[in-house]
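[DERIVE STRUCTURE TOKENS]
===
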Amino acid sequence: MKQTKEAAPAAPKKKHRHSFNYPWMSAAVPLVVLLVALPIANSRFLTVSNLTSILLQAAVYVIMALGMSFVLMTGGIDLSQGSLLALVGVVAAYIVEHQGSIFLAVVASILVGALVGLANGTVISCLKIPPFIMTLSTMYLCRGLTLVITQASPISITNASFRWIGSGRVLGIPVPVIIFVVAAAVGQFILSYTATGRYILAVGSNREAARLSGIKTRWNECKVYIISGVMVAIAGIVYVTRLGAAQANAGQSYEMEAVAASVLGGTSVLGGEGGIIGTVLGAIVVAIIRNAIVLLEVSTYYQQMITGAVILLAVIVDVQRKARAAKRVD
């Protein structure tokens, strides 16, 4: 009987992982484009003073966006960030000017941010109120409380030591830049090397599966709003010390800048995916766009339109990237 030689099984095709599949590339690409195009459009862009100004403005965006990214990773959103920034700034300025204690001002501001975040997280996770509705309510509550405290009048900060946080330098590096780098490093550590980071992503990916696997979904959902509140408090301190005054209308629409930075950096609005590097790059892109509007003398009326376009494009990229990933799995 003639034996036939069995055909050897075909070798599996080697899958090449394209670099654009990395979420943070959605921020890196426009960043590179802006860094190439803007110096050509305006020679003042690459000056030391302008680049320093961009980093100082990016500091507030980065810190807020870090908190927003953690929230988005669970599939939520925090619309109260801008109003909370104004509230913690007023609290810090009021305590410094009336009590003279920088330590107390910083601690009180962070405590206020954490409590507001705890309130958001508790109601959202335990009472099942949609994050959009709860944080929208908190947004109005924080803004209203800020107006009551200030009576719509700014609180000037005369304490030079406190203002150093926003205007000082260490080894030539602006303090706000050092703060946002440290905040980003802490965020990266939490997301990559702690159980909390893994649980947050698991809750965003599939809440029910996470619950069935023993993860405390309510507590981890609550955590992200506390993180957001604390990050906003730190950003608020940086903001008022750089500006030199606390104002009731501070931080208006900043929550949208944080969303834009986070989504542009690869954090999915559907939850379950995100990264700190992308968020930092996204915040820098947002700061560069704002800076370019001034340098190129574009009307500020277009600023909101540009921010909206950036968010829309980032979401489209996110959806398309996830669709390609789903096809590869199938």
In short: The first strand starts at residue 155 and ends at 156.
